[in-house]
Structure formats: C-alpha cells, structure tokens
Design brief:
This protein is α+β, with helices and mostly antiparallel strands. It is built from twelve helices and 17 strands. The chain has two domains: about 10-210 and about 330-410, 3-Layer(aba) Sandwich (Aminopeptidase), CATH 3.40.630; about 210-325, Alpha-Beta Plaits, CATH 3.30.70.
Length: about 400
C-alpha cells in the first residue's frame, strides 16, 4: 500500500499565518475584535483561500466561514477562529484555521485518500458578543432571541448592527448536518508552559475545562468618608476585599489539582475618594475539568457569602452568569494524534487537559472531537507578545495533517 504521509508545505503555512498577522497588526500581535474591519477582512481572506483546497466557501449569517467538499467518502471537520482578544496575540485562533486549510489543501486533491477535510472558522470564540457564538450557532444552541439580546462587551454595539455592517444581515445561519462528519479536530497554541518546559512538541488534549462565572455583589451603606467612624462603617469595598482574601485561603482545601479561580473585575459604587462605597461588585470565575469540583466550590462560595451576610455588616449576593460544561476529547482522536506525533514529532507528546475553553468543547456535544497543542513561548497568550517558534508551528502542522489523514483512513 502506498504511503500517503502528508507533504505539508511549511513555508505556505507560515506565509498564511503571517498574512493574517498583517491584518489588524498591533505591535507583535493583532487587534482583531469580532466584526471589526480587520476581522471581516480575515473572514474574506479565508473565503478566497478555501477553493485552493477544493472547497466551496460560505460566510453564514452569524459570521462563520465554512468550506465544504463534494468529494465522496468520509468528511472530517477542522478549524478554529480568526478574531482576537483586544490587543492580543497572532496565533490564538488563526493557527487552527490555517492548519485546517493546509490539511484540506494536502488531502482533498489526493484521489488515493478517501474523504475530505472540511474547514470552519467559528465566529466570536473570544466572546466579544457571547462565548463561542459561532460554534454554538452551528450546533443549534443560539436562538434569534439570543442574537437580538447580544451586545459587544466593550462598545455596546448590538450584534444585529454588527452583522448588518458586515454585510451579513438576512443570511441564513448554517447548522450541522448530523452524521456528515466523522468528527472535529482543532489545533491551538498551548497558552501555558507545559510543553516548552518539558521539551515537548505536541500536547494531546484529554479534556477541556468547565468554566463557571459569577457576579458577586456586596451591599453596605454609602456615607461620608471623613465623618463616619471606622467602627460604624458598612464598607462594601472592604467587604469585597476581605472576601477575595478568604477565597484564596479556603478554596485550596476544596479544589482539585488543576482548579483555578480568578477575580476578573472589581467595581466600587460610587467609587469616589471621599465616599464610603455602598455597593461593590466582582466578576469571579472557576475552572476545572470535573463538574463535581466546581459544584463543591460553588457551595463553599455561597456558604461564605451567607456567613458574611449573617454578620450584619454587608449583604453578599451571588449570581451565576455562565455555566460552561467541561468536555472530554474522543479517545480515538487522542490516540491518532499520538500516532501522528510519533511519526512527525519524534513522539515528543504528552496527554494533558486544556485550562482554556475552545470551540472543540462545543462541537464535542454533537460529534467526536479532538485537540492538539503546540508550544507557547513563555506560556504567554492573550497579549501581543504571544509567539511560537516557526519550527514548532511547522511540526504541529505536520502532525495535524497526518492526524487528519489517519482519521479519514480508518
């Protein structure tokens, strides 16, 4: 039997990534928020490249770019996203899209390989209008009412307005044709230091964390900062600060080995130097791959809030804003990535969970899914200094394309 190992064009992969880097360039990274001019230009760039892989390109009514094939045989869906966080890195998202494009260019024209790779760029994975907006739309988890209510978290622009300005108003949203794909494969930079510190080339993702997010509000008593004695104060800001410290003191006894928690934003009302804040608010997030661990921590969080309220100083209210379920990656996909790594990365791979959310966890709700990581220099991501060595990018592309080939050959 002929050996159809993937002849990846590493220079082409790097050229594509650098082209996307030049669109919305900011220092060493990009500023490409969802439905910005730079993001829309990137979507159209991809749509013009997909025919090189024998794919028909479509930008649907939510901003997903989908490349579909008429080639007979099994279909494997692959991709990631093209928008960025604000003033952020150039590889978070585009790496997976370009790998998918390269896999389609290599595999689809080969008549000896049954089936085809289809390519997707999912809109708004970064959550400017709503987390995983494009992939959730594709699996049927976004309603028209959701779109009506969505607004850009920075500007307040409505999603309907953004779609209209992007020329996408009135277009149908494409949803998955159940049974069409044997699964979904995504590549991403690690956004951590496990691979780099271990001298490894490939991370084989075993699971993607669940993300639960909360708004924690503190209600005290607004009063004059100069005339109110310290023992009479009901300072909502101070209550919040003490609560943050208490979380860090108590959570380790209830968490798992990879649990993380973050206070992402704190606001004081009225936030003036001469006024004791009567209200304070924090956005808080817990991540873990085990739902039971997050549930245990939420129970602790609510118990702590109840205790503070009972003390009579400030009332604490907890509102859960988001529940993102963890997702297990398909065992067959994991093994296939490991096999491909053995061929193209000298077996320098490790199985590991993902501490960040990805579109793969959404696609995993309707089909088998897998993910691979390549190293991040210094573990930096969501910042314009985010980077990966060119050699690691090319190795990752080789492993990715070989994984696609092996999955289609089964």
């Amino acid at each position: 039997m002929a050996d159809h190992r993937a002849p990846v064009d590493g220079a082409r992969v790097l050229d594509d990534l650098n082209t996307l880097r030049s669109i919305g360039a900011y220092k060493g990274g990009v500023h490409k928020p969802t439905f910005s001019d730079a993001h829309i230009r990137s979507l159209h760039w991809l749509a013009t490249k997909l025919p090189e892989a024998g794919l028909a390109a479509d930008i649907d009514g939510i901003g997903n770019v989908l490349g579909t094939s008429t080639k007979s045989g099994p279909k494997l869906l692959a991709g990631s996203h093209l928008e960025s966080q604000n003033f952020a890195g150039w590889l978070d998202g585009p790496l997976g899209v370009v790998y998918a494009l390269e896999a389609a260019r290599v595999i689809n024209p080969d008549a000896d390989i049954k089936g085809a790779v289809e390519v997707a760029s999912w809109c708004d994975e970064e959550g400017h209008f709503g987390s995983f907006l494009g992939s959730r739309s594709y699996v049927g988890a976004v309603t028209d009412e959701d779109i009506d209510a969505a607004r850009d978290r920075s500007s307040g622009r409505t999603l309907r307005e953004a779609l209209r300005e992007a020329g996408l108003a009135g277009r149908a949203r494409v949803t998955a044709e159940r049974g069409r794909h044997i699964g979904y494969l995504e590549a991403h930079i690690e956004q951590g230091q496990t691979l780099e510190s271990g001298g490894l080339a490939i991370g084989i993702v075993t699971s993607i964390v669940g993300i639960w997010q909360y708004r924690i509000s503190f209600v005290g008593e607004q009063n004059h900062a100069g005339t109110t004695r310290m023992d009479l104060r009901k300072d909502a800001g101070l209550a919040l600060a003490r609560f943050c410290v208490a979380i860090d003191d108590r959570f380790p006894g209830y968490s798992g080995p990879r649990t993380v928690w973050t206070t992402g934003r704190i606001t004081l009302d009225p936030g003036a130097p001469s006024i004791i804040p009567g209200r304070a608010e924090m956005l808080f997030q817990i991540r873990d791959a085990e739902p039971a661990v997050i549930e245990r921590l939420e129970d602790l969080l609510r118990s702590m809030a109840k205790d503070v309220t009972a003390q009579g100083g400030c009332a604490v209210e907890i509102e859960r804003l988001r529940t993102g379920a963890p997702a297990l990656m398909d065992s067959r996909f994991q093994q296939t990535i490991e096999d491909a790594s053995g061929r193209f990365a000298g077996g320098r791979s490790v199985r590991m969970p993902s501490g960040a959310g990805h579109d793969a966890q959404v696609l995993a709700t309707i089909m088998p899914a897998g993910m691979l990581f390549v190293p991040s220099i210094g573990g930096i991501s969501h910042h314009w200094t985010e980077n990966t060595d060119d050699a690691d990018i090319v190795t990752g592309a080789q492993v990715f394309v070989e994984t696609c080939r092996l999955l289609l050959a089964e």
